[in-house]
Amino acid sequence: MSAVAEQSGGPLVSRRRRRLRLLRKRFLRRPMAVAGLLVVVFFVVLAVFAPWIAPYGYGATDFNALLAHPSAKHLLGTDELGRDELSRIVWSARASMQVGFFSTMLAMLIAVPIGMVAGYYRGWADTVVARVTDVLLAFPFLILAVGLAAILGPSLMNATLALGIGSIPGFIRIARGETFALREEDYVPAAVVNGAGDGTIIFRHILPNMTSTLLVQATVTIPQAIVGEAVLSFLGLGVQPPTPSWGVMLQDAQSYLSQAPRLAVYPGLAIVLAALAFNVLGDGLRDILDPRTTR
Amino acid sequence: MGGFLIRKAGAALVVVVAASIVVFLGVRAIPGDPAIALGAENRDPAVLAAIRHKYMLDRPLPVQYVHWIWLAVHGDLGTDQRELPVARTIVQRLPITLELTFLSMLFATLVGLPAGVIAAVRRGKPSDYAATTVALIGLSVPHFWLGLLAIVWFAVDLHWLPAGGYVTMHHPLANLEHMLMPAIVLGSGFSAVLMRQMRSSMLTSLGADYVRTARAKGLSEWSVVGRHALRNSLITVTTVMGLQLGGLISGAVVTETIFALPGFGQLTILAVQQRDYALIQGVVLVVAAGYVVANLLVDVVYSLLNPRIRVT
């Protein structure tokens, strides 16, 4: 630790910085996790800059090249309407990343405060929350999402909502369990002695200490939502054409399995790669954040 | 043990009742007037009123709910859009899904458990890396895509297996032929989860004191791994199997749709796509109830395997 940081930041900030530096060092020592992060960044870049990266628009048709094989003009070939497969895969990253990130954020925003209040106050609030979570968990994730999609109607926005609501029980359980454990830590009575109210304790003391657990849960939830979106769209209950999505592309490909099996391969590879990247990143984060693996 | 069972069963019952209310209200929240859907093209107010009266849509929600649940308890889930009894359709389609789930669990257990044990025993060796990597990929591959690939390779290209459809168990071989691909596709993700769990709990067991004692007693490696470490690892794995049930049900929905298996999962999607309210209501209620009961069974099995749980 350099003397400059010690002076400017004070002991608390320098400790936090030291921990961050340690975490970064541990993270960089895991090639798989780094690769996962790079692929995640790659997909986010694809999603954000799709108009500049994709060679063609997602709806641009080339009627001279229907179901065309890969060529210099169309690197991954074209679909039944002569649309460039590569461009559509790039554009589809938008739907996947949007659903992945926003549904997870939605679930966190709703579930974390509920779970923390339940875990902090216990008593009847906790009982109610635990029962409601049990009821939500009585529906398998996809069944819940399919049901919600039926209620809300099929669209990208509603798929995000449905998958987000489906992820709420998991986050509630984690936030509740963590709060349960963290409120027994010494710094909670210390804060009480210092005159901190419940809100301060929950948000200033407990929440920051569970961010790593929430982060790991998020890296599990995002790929689940990405795959969920693909499934919903594949079943016609998610993103609707002409908006491109990997699930929509696979649904189209299903009719051409014998003529153009590659149409069923590429979008799936994109899903696997994206989901795998998040899972690997999550594994890596869990390893470096879990105190039991600290060396 | 008796008290524990009763408490667990009571909690499960409460959850099922609450879930039925959620299903009931959820179906009522679907936009559109069910009377118009049932009356097809007929918009005559008198006809619509008659339909509403027949299906009790003109009564208050609590009355409708009690009526529905009363009939449901007696095995009557109403009739769908084609006037067929929902309960009978479900009972007809359920065996297909149960067979599919059973076969895929069988596949997952036969592949996942040995792979996990081998990976743990040979930790850090190439076979461990191979198994771990395959499992990680298996976790990220969505069922429906794996299903599409399997159809392309084994049905379209190689003509080894039928691309889809179902044959009743009266023709066991043909039945198995049609079930093989769906079962493996559905079981693949599950086997990956089992493998990972088995590996990590075996690693924990292998590091435990009683394993060292067993080794010190001069027991053979086979007996140390098989009799001592494996038995304790299986306890954790049972819980994971329970947690995976939901994934298996969700997977069955997708797998049946892809392989054109006329099972319960396909029925679910059909009901939602056709906006068949009575059918959606019945199907989702059965899923939720079945899922809760299955979880209850897992809890019971778990408590039998691990007596410490019962006390807490």
Structure, explained:
The complex is a heterodimer of chains A (295) and B (312). Chain A is built from eleven helices and no strands. Chain A has helices at residues 3-28, 31-48, 50-53, 85-121, 123-137, 141-152, 156-182, 187-193, 198-234, 246-254, 262-289. In chain A, helix 8 (187-193) crosses helix 9. The two termini of chain A are 19 Å apart. Chain B is mainly α and 312 residues long. Chain B contains 13 helices and no strands. Chain B starts with a helix and ends with a helix. Chains A and B meet through helix 5, helix 6, helix 9, helix 10 and helix 11 of A and helix 1, helix 6, helix 7, helix 10 and helix 11 of B.
| Count of beta strands of chain A | 0
* Count of individual helical segments of chain A: 11
Largest sheet of chain B: none
Based on CA atoms alone, the radius of gyration of chain A comes out at 23 Å
The proportion of residues forming helix of chain B, as a percent range, comes to over 70%
Helix-strand pattern of chain B, N to C?
HHHHHHHHHHHHH
Total number of helices of chain B = 13
Topology:
The complex is a heterodimer of chains A (295) and B (312).
Chain A: H1 3-28, H2 31-48, H3 50-53, H4 85-121, H5 123-137, H6 141-152, H7 156-182, H8 187-193, H9 198-234, H10 246-254, H11 262-289
Helix pairs in contact in A: 2-4, 2-11, 4-5, 4-7, 4-9, 4-11, 5-7, 6-7, 7-9, 8-9, 9-10, 9-11, 10-11
Chain B: H1 2-29, H2 34-38, H3 45-54, H4 61-73, H5 86-121, H6 126-140, H7 143-157, H8 172-206, H9 209-216, H10 221-258, H11 264-273, H12 277-305, H13 308-311
